[in-house]
Structure formats: structure tokens, C-alpha cells
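REQUEST
  id: r-88c1
  op: predict_structure
  target: Formate--tetrahydrofolate ligase
  payload:
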Amino acid sequence: MSSDIEIAQAATLRPIHDIAQRLGLAPTDLHVYGQHMAKLTQATVNHLHSQPSRAKLILVTAINPTPAGEGKTTTTVGLTDALNLAGYQALACLREPSLGPVFGMKGGATGGGYAQVVPMENINLHFTGDFHAISAANNLLAALVDNHIYHGNALQFDQVSWRRCMDMNDRALRRITINQPTSYDTGFDITVASEVMAIFCLATDLADLTRRLGRVQVGVSQQGKPILASDLQAEGAMTALLKDAFQPNLVQTLEGSPALLHGGPFANIAHGCNSLVATQTALRLADYVVTEAGFGADLGAEKFMDIKCRQSGLRPDMAVVVATVRALKYHGGVEVADLNSENLPALAVGIDNLKKHVDNMRQHFGLPVLVALNHFTQDTEAEVAQLRAAVESWGSSLHVCKHWAEGGKGALELAHAVAALAQQPANPTLLYEDHLSLPEKLTVIAQSLYGADGVTLSELAQKQLLDMAGASDGLPVCVAKTQYSLSSDAKLRNVPQNHTLHVRELRLSRGAGFVVAICGDIMTMPGLPKQPASGRIAVDDSGRILGLS
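RESPONSE
  id: r-88c1
  status: 200
  body:
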């Protein structure tokens, strides 16, 4: 069986101008990066945004992730290919991969098998340099803060809250001490968890990007007054660093479907959606836009609705919840080594995790929902039949998808069902109202989506809540917690009962327009696993990359 990278490297890619032409774009609308990648020019993006939206927006989400894998990106790509194969005009809208997972545990994020976006090596590594630009803008601001203090501290910094970032897992940088006239403790976050990444993905245009960057809070003065990036006149230079990166990236799937990849905030510690600019652009270029929100629906989909949609006015027309038999058996108590064996009792238990996510999307967000079963060859007929009966008993439908092995034709049934359901009227809603207090918003999320009994705030979080009084009014919450559980404890599988959401720390992201609630033991700078994926990656004598997944 060929690996993902072998399949991608064996494919014949179409010139990027041909992909653009499918969307009605001319060569002058592109800034090309070689034969197979391009950015849409800012003038083209501005022109498209002046036109009305024409597409149905399909949100792909999933159950809670497991070591067995779920295949959300693979399903997003397969569904896009299937829609195009069925005669619809569809475009995928995805996040860019972070180097942290590429070299860490998860690997790349371009799909898998015959449902991938390509060129996968470029996309999974440096791509068009967007993340480097975001890191540079973030760290320029940090350097300006330190430089200001060094040269006399005219703004009278008492506390510095701005952190540096890099797009790599490096636990040694979680805490550092800056030594200058006044020493202070700080640290690094991974770039995809930075506020600059969030701002980049939520800004509507360059002017809004600049305004948001100027609102970033970098510290507090000796008089207790917030100090902003605009006080350091930093926003103009930061925007200059981000100007080219802000243009969405156009690539293709293995079957030649167009795909916009832009931005990449993590969903467990950030808001987990591709850039608003890319989504708004896509909605003017196709009839169906298939986008995904990171990790399970308790994280990515909730933030897609309560942060991205709240700020932009976007509303998806429906949701697809992705599951695998293997992952559901894992939630039912089966360990990874035994997942290839049929186990109907465990599947019956693990199905509750899928039901919770389907119920959440329908009841709390008002979205019509289909279930996509990402099929594995080890799945038995009895297991699929049991899962189908359960899903249909909830008033939804299950669609067995084989896009990993067959490409678009393996997801045709799902594509036709999506196209039909997307035509029906939907009434999407947000989970909570703006006027609620921060603890009240957290309680609604925890009790409604996670099934928690309630929320507790550490002493530090309680102090931070008081410190940001007034500034956090009306802002949504970005919950940073483990992706592996509906709770804040990664060890609690399926649908945990009698648990509490423990909030360890609160961070005000003025520029992004939300408050981050860091829960449990989640880290904003992940570490590498004992055996990093980097150990499998090499380059042969011809310059071909090996081992990338």
C-alpha cells in the first residue's frame, strides 16, 4: 500500500493557472509560486468581496479525536472532489499546516490517500511563508516592547504580557526570563496559538488587520493602564510584514479541485478556523464551499460558530460530522492494539460520543447534520449496520465514505446528500448571548456542549478576571482545552459524567476580539513526543522528500 507522500508524489498536477480558470480567475489575478501554488492578489480579493456571496457553506467537523484517527481533512477534500465529480462547483477552504505537528506526533494536515491537497510537501513545510511572516510580526512587537523599556520606559511598563512565538514544538521555551534593566518572566507560544495568528484569520481586510494589531495589549503601566501595540506605533510595521501573507493561497486536490488554504490557528488552544478572508473569497467563487473546523465539534465547530461567525455574520448551511468505527470503539473502551477486531458492545458504548456531537450541532447551533463514516477496510458489515441504525434513530443519516482509497467517487453518496440538505432552510444560532458575563459564557459552553456540572476558576484566573473587568465585556470565549475529551481531562473518553471544567488561566486578546480560557493542563507551546515524526523524514539524492505524512 502506497503512503500518502508516495501517492502525492506520483500524481500529475495541473498548472495552477488551469485551477484558477475553473474559478473564473485570470492569470493577472494570481501571484504565482512556481507551477502549482499561487496567492490571489489583493486587488482580486477586494474585487470579489464587493460582490454578493453565492455559495452554500458546508462545515465539516468530527467526534473527539483518538489515536485511531478520524480523517476530517481527508473527508473535507474527498467531499469537495465528490461534489465536483457529481457536477456541482465546489471549493475546499482549509487551514495551513503547522510545523509543530508535522515534526511532532500528528504529521501533516493535507488529507490522506487519494483525498489530499497538493503539492503536499510544500504545503506541509514552508508553503508560501505565511507562518514565518506571522511569527516575524509577533516577535517584532516583542522586540519593540523590550527596546522601549531599554531606552527609558517612557510608557512606564510595570508588567509585560506579550509573548514571543515560533512555529515549532519546543517545551524549553515555554518559560524564559528577559534580562535587561528590569527583568521579567515571559515565554514562547507556538505560532498557531498566537494572537497575531487569530487576528490574521479574523480580519476582514488590511485596514481591519491594522486596527486589530493596534489594539493588541502588550502590558500594563505602573498606573494600571493597558499599554497597546499602537502606543509603540507597531501596527504599521506589523501589517507591512503581513501584507503579502494576507492574500489567500490557491492550490488543488489530487483530482484537480480548487482549494484555498490560508491561516492555521489550532483548535485546542486557538479558534481553529481558516482565515475569514479566504472563506469570504471562496463564497464568491463557487456554489459549494467545504470548510473544516479543527478537532472535535466541542472545540473547532463551537469556535467557528461563536467566534468566527459571531464576528463576521457568516452562517453555515449545514454540518457534516466525521467519525470512524475504530475511533468510536476506542471511545467505547477498546485499546488501539485491539481496534481491528469486531466489537459491537464497545461500538454501542462509543456511539454516545458521536451522538453528543450531533445533538450539539443540531440543538445548540440549529444546523442540519449528516454523519460521514470515514471507512476503514477492517470495518465489518455488522459494525457499519449497527452504527447506521443508531444514527438513523436520531433522525439523521449515515454515509459510508471511501475517499481515502477511491478519491471523489468514494464519497459520491455523501456529496449528493450534502447538496440536497444544503438546499433546505436552516436557522443557525449562536450558543450564548454577548451580554452574558465571562463566567456565564464559560458555564453555558461547559454545561451545554461538554456535559459538565459547572466551571471552576483558579485563584490566578479569578484575579485575571478582575483585572480585565470592562475590557472583556461582550467578547466571546475561546476555550483552550484537550481535544481528546469533552472534558478538560484527556483521559476521560466518550461522554464523561460528573466532571467540572477547570479554568487555569485567562488571557485577554483585545485585537482578536476574544478571551482565551486555558483549561486543565493544556499548553500553548506543545512539546515533541518521545519518538517525533521528524525521525522518519529524509531527503534522497535527487532532492525528493521521504517519510512526510
